[in-house]
């Protein structure tokens, strides 16, 4: 195998298809397991609404543009990608499985069987399972076990978090990627990928809520003891804030977006009364002038509403008291001034902004919150198959979930090291 071919095997590509933009991150796994970002691409997204493909051609065009930009920067062709999936069509639920242990010692076969037992849940014919994520194992009543392999016992139980998605939505994402000339190595829930990029290990252990405020949706993952316990997607995001500004100020959407990015604040502060913003009119009408104080009064209610919905999710899941590490905000809208302060008021807990970490290379670009999911996809892929990428072994995929034989081997090796998330 040539040096170039070997390097190609160590390339991982994350493709984040969002409502407002498509982001691509190309990562190269080094011999020590670290990851360098060697290529980044971004394109405006027009064919996606709240995580759902509404126009195939426009989605394909955006994917191609972002991929072309990334592969030109990286200097390598892009063919296989890890793709994010998000939106209100994704649903998370917890399930439990139980089996009798063969030979009174937990084997890999027993672990496979108990996971299959847990995934045997009733879902409608128009939905499919995307993830089955182990939370904890129980052996003969002893709980909080992360790796039961080799333990003695007669009864093995498991708690898992199952993520399902609309089959139609999945098919349209797959079709868009295929038409753009790409193969999907795996579909990954957006907030699961994001969690890999922005969370510290101690946060994942203590309990934390990741809130990814995108353009069309706000995606949430609650991670406790290293595993996801609740995931959801709220159908509001940065686009709604922009719409509020456009309607209230009677200005074109593009101008409202510019005003939001340049002058927007989620926090209403009297001192902003002296800061003046010029607002272009529609249809050639004269521009208007208003203060940042007035602008923040338009933005604040929507931010509080979005965070209120997130808090309701935590309360309904019974997990509000378990997020000891607080809230981690990420996504493009998380960059807005004052949003951390307002979020802290809603939740009454600590809030920090999360940016992609644990990467090298083009860090100055890739560390922007808007690339959190794309970077997370690369980190997710590397952690899911740690030895295959370092060894330059090709992963053969049987479908969108990449359930080929080599991947199954990697997953079993992964279990040996207790790497569940």
Automatic annotation (TrEMBL):
<keyword id="KW-0131">Cell cycle</keyword>
<dbReference type="Pfam" id="PF02491">
    <property type="entry name" value="SHS2_FTSA"/>
</dbReference>
<dbReference type="GO" id="GO:0032153">
    <property type="term" value="C:cell division site"/>
</dbReference>
<dbReference type="InterPro" id="IPR003494">
    <property type="entry name" value="SHS2_FtsA"/>
</dbReference>
<dbReference type="InterPro" id="IPR020823">
    <property type="entry name" value="Cell_div_FtsA"/>
</dbReference>
<dbReference type="GO" id="GO:0009898">
    <property type="term" value="C:cytoplasmic side of plasma membrane"/>
</dbReference>
<feature type="domain" description="SHS2">
    <location>
        <begin position="12"/>
        <end position="198"/>
    </location>
</feature>
<dbReference type="InterPro" id="IPR043129">
    <property type="entry name" value="ATPase_NBD"/>
</dbReference>
<dbReference type="Pfam" id="PF14450">
    <property type="entry name" value="FtsA"/>
</dbReference>
<keyword id="KW-0472">Membrane</keyword>
<keyword id="KW-0132">Cell division</keyword>
<keyword id="KW-1003">Cell membrane</keyword>
<dbReference type="InterPro" id="IPR050696">
    <property type="entry name" value="FtsA/MreB"/>
</dbReference>
<comment type="function">
    <text>Cell division protein that is involved in the assembly of the Z ring. May serve as a membrane anchor for the Z ring.</text>
</comment>
<comment type="subunit">
    <text>Self-interacts. Interacts with FtsZ.</text>
</comment>
<comment type="similarity">
    <text>Belongs to the FtsA/MreB family.</text>
</comment>
<protein>
    <recommendedName>
        <fullName>Cell division protein FtsA</fullName>
    </recommendedName>
</protein>
<keyword id="KW-0997">Cell inner membrane</keyword>
<dbReference type="GO" id="GO:0043093">
    <property type="term" value="P:FtsZ-dependent cytokinesis"/>
</dbReference>
């Amino acid at each position: 195998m040539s040096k170039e071919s070997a390097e190609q095997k160590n390339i991982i590509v994350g493709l984040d298809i969002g409502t407002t933009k498509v982001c691509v991150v190309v990562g190269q796994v080094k011999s020590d397991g670290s990851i360098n970002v060697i290529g980044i691409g971004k394109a405006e997204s027009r064919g996606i609404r709240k995580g759902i493909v509404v126009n195939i051609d426009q989605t394909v065009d955006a994917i191609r543009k972002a991929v072309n930009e990334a592969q030109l920067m990286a200097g390598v062709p892009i063919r296989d990608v890890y793709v994010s999936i998000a939106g209100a069509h994704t649903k998370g639920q917890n399930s439990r499985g139980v089996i009798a242990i063969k030979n009174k010692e937990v084997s890999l076969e027993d672990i496979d069987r108990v996971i299959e037992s847990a995934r045997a849940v009733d879902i409608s014919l128009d939905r499919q399972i995307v993830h089955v994520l182990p939370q904890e194992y129980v052996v003969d009543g002893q709980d909080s076990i992360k790796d039961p392999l080799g333990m003695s016992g007669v009864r093995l139980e498991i708690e898992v978090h199952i993520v399902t998605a609309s089959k139609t939505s999945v098919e349209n994402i797959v079709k868009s990627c295929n038409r753009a000339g790409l193969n999907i190595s795996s579909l990954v829930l957006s907030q699961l990928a994001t969690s890999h990029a922005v969370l510290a290990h101690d946060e994942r252990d203590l309990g934390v809520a990741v809130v990814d405020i995108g353009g069309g949706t706000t995606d949430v993952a609650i991670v406790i003891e290293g595993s996801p316990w609740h995931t959801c997607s709220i159908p509001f995001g940065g686009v709604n804030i922009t719409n509020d500004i456009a309607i209230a100020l009677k200005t074109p959407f593009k101008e409202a977006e510019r005003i939001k990015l340049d002058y927007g604040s989620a926090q209403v502060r009297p001192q902003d009364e002296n800061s003046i913003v010029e607002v272009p009119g529609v249809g050639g009408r004269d521009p208007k002038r208003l203060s940042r104080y007035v602008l923040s009064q338009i933005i604040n209610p929507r931010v509080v509403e979005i965070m209120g919905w997130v808090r309701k999710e935590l309360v309904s899941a019974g997990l509000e008291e378990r997020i000891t590490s607080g809230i981690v905000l990420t996504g493009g809208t998380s960059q807005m001034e004052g949003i951390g302060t307002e979020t802290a008021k809603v939740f009454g807990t600590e809030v920090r902004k999360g940016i992609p970490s644990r990467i090298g290379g083009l860090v100055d670009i890739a560390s922007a919150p808007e690339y959190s999911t794309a970077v997370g996809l690369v980190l997710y892929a590397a952690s899911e198959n740690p030895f295959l990428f370092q060894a330059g072994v090709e992963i053969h995929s049987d479908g969108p979930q990449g359930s080929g034989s080599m991947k199954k081997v990697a997953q079993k090796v992964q279990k040996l090291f207790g790497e569940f998330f």
